[in-house]
Fold:
Amino acid sequence: MKTKRVNGIETLILDGTDRGSFSVLREWTDRADPLESLEHEANPTSLSIPMLLELAALVETLAEDLAEGPASPKR
Structure:
């Protein structure tokens, strides 16, 4: 796992699918800073339509990978 900032937002780069790596916002994971989460509870943010579509596409891709079974070893 690697981290990088995209448009000032910390993002985790994850490996593990046959299609290569993918990224998710750090705040969507258990790696989020708990203190930041508390600050945002007073002013919760909502996911935009593009963010929800991106998340749905990621979930669909991961589900397809799981349905295909274990990947063959990389060479």
